[in-house]
Every structure is written in structure tokens, then in C-alpha cells.
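User: Now give one protein:

AI:
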Amino acid sequence: MMSTQGTLTGRVALVAGGTRGTGRGIARELGAAGATVYVTGRSTRERRSEMDRPETIEETAELIEAAGGRAIAVPVDHLEPEQVKALAERVDREQGRLDVLVNDIWGGDGLVEWNVKLWQHPLDRGLRLLRLAVDTHLITGHFLLPLMIREPGGLHVEVTDGTTEYNSRNYRLSAFYDLAKASVNRMGYGLGEELREYGCTAVALTPGWLRSEMMLEHYGVTEENWRDATAATPHFAISETPAFTGRAVVALAADPDRARWNGQSLSSGALARVYGFTDVDGSRPDAWRYITEVADPGKPADVTGYR
């Protein structure tokens, strides 16, 4: 991994939904590259969101600062237009610009029920999931993108799960989840069309099999001993840290030719092959290629050639 320290010095970034997981990893890596990073979310040290998780935006800000960046944590419920409007006004007032907007808002993990038919899935939970996954992204873009398009060169990243190619061929085991992730991919394409005339770039970006706080907890492991989980779940060997997607965003933001990706659906693993960045262990896990070629066809777990 070539050092990215200072490559984004002077840039202003905002990671919406940066409390944990991919959003936290992206926010930290943007800070490590020198950007000023606004990190937003609902979970603070004073109040937890409905996910009821211990991670907070203040902790994310501390990780950014520890990595050498400048962090500004702002509690925001992105379903509330007035809160997002106030956020945009604050960024404008304090910075007068926005160079990178990352939309990683989700919060639907506890709402989805897998392998349940549409008519069997609790409707209120499914509709809430869609509001958290789709409405939040639209509201955020509505208020923040006008700030980004003031100058050419801005980058907007819609974070999702699965590439457009993969999701179009594979049902994601829940009508609500499937629609949510396909919608965010489509947003990356559509916003690319809308931002093109302003010299800005929009993409959809997916991590691979993520070693988030929740996933590590689910398998009863930590980042230090995560490979122990492969005994019961062998394909977990292809998993990656949130930093990997963060480095993908840094690579895109630092690329003067980033417009070549406009409107595309991208993955952390595929971008690593292009830009040469690595995960924290020095490997380059290409999860979606592995899932397509090894896991889904039912082949034995073997990450040779995939990380």
C-alpha cells in the first residue's frame, strides 16, 4: 500500500452514516489522507439510534484525529430534512465547499428478515428499512450536492451492497433488502448523469464481505483472531476490513481522472486491482469475484488468486 498521507490535504469530505462499519472505515481513511471530515449519524455518547449499538460518531471522529485528520462529528437523523438542511448550512458556513460526499446511511440490519416472502415479511419493518436505505440518501443528496457542484472535481459515493451486475443476477434473499440495494446502485448511476455537466463524479461502491463490528460480534471473533471464524464459515476467508473500502474512496478522490468512473457500479476489490491499494494486512481481497466464481457455485473455500 503506497502512502496516501497528504493526498487530500485541503479537501472537505462528509461521510453520512459514519458511525460504524464501512462509513467509519471510509471516514478514517479520508482523514488519514489529509481531508477535513464531517461525520454524521444518529448514535452519540448521549443517545443511541434504534440499532442500539455502542459505536458513536464521536468515536469515529477520534479515530480520524488519531490517523492525522481533522474530524467534525455532527449528530444528524438523515430522515429529517430540516436536520440535513442545517448540516449543509453548517458545512457551507464553516468551509464554503464540499469536495467529497459519501452516502453510507443504512441502519436496516435489525429490520430485514431473510428468506421470508414479501407477504410474510412484517410490512412496517420492510417499509422502515426502505426509508432508512433510500429516503435518507435522497434527502442527503438534495441538500448537500448543491454545495459540492460549486466547483468541478467533486466526488459523490453511494455505498451499497453488491455491484449492479451481481444484484441484477442474484436475488438478495429479501424483497425489501433487494430493492434497497438495487436502488442505491441506481442512484449512483442517475446522479452521475446529473452531476456530469458540473464536472463532478458520482459512483456506487460496494465493500466485499465486511468485517464490521457487527459481523465480528456475530462470529464471536475480533479483528485480531477473525480467521478463527473460517472453521465454521470457510468462505469468510475472503472478508475485508472497513479500511479497504475507505482506501478505495481515497483512491477515487485523489485520482485526477476520476470522471472515467462516472455513473459506474464499483467494488473495493476491483478498484484495488486498478489503484494498487491493499487492506490492512497487505492483501487485496476481491470478494465479489470470489463470491461469483467460488462461493455461489458451491466450490470449496480457497482464496488463492483472490486476495
Notes: Residues 12-295 form a domain with the Rossmann fold fold (CATH 3.40.50.720). The longest helix spans residues 123-148. The chain has a mean pLDDT of 95. Strands lie at 12-16, 36-41, 70-75, 100-103, 155-159, 201-206, 265-267.
